[in-house]
Known about the structure:
By secondary structure, the chain is an all-alpha fold. The protein has helices spanning 2-25, 49-59, 63-68, 71-74. α1 (2-25) packs across α2. The site of heme C has 17 residues, from α1 and α2.
Amino acid sequence: MKRIVLAILGAFMALAAPAAAQTATTGARSESTTDHSRLKPLMREFASGPEMTAACVSCHTEAADQVMRTLHCTWDFTNPATV
Ligand code: HEC
């Protein structure tokens, strides 16, 4: 189960990473206080997506739980237009 959560989170994080990296490197437009290109846990080769995601969640401790509660994962939504 943990591997599945990490794989799903990996997909979300893969989408978020370029945005985070871009934000971190665009100087004046950046609102982040963190430049991920300077974070030691990320300064190595990763053998797989889940392995990299594990590095992300070492800091982003609530991300896995938050992703699992999104609409994309729960499919729990009642559309008022179609009920
Ligand atoms: C060493 C700790 C650390 C690691 C490892 C790390 N991050 Fe972050 N990340 C942070 C911190 C701290 C912030 C908050 C920056 C701010 O709010 O200014 C942040 C912010 C972000 C944000 C902006 C949205 C948010 O939740 O604040 C994204 C997206 C993000 N990180 C993605 C990633 C991804 C993807 C990885 C793995 C490839 C990763 N991070 C690895 C510490 C880390």
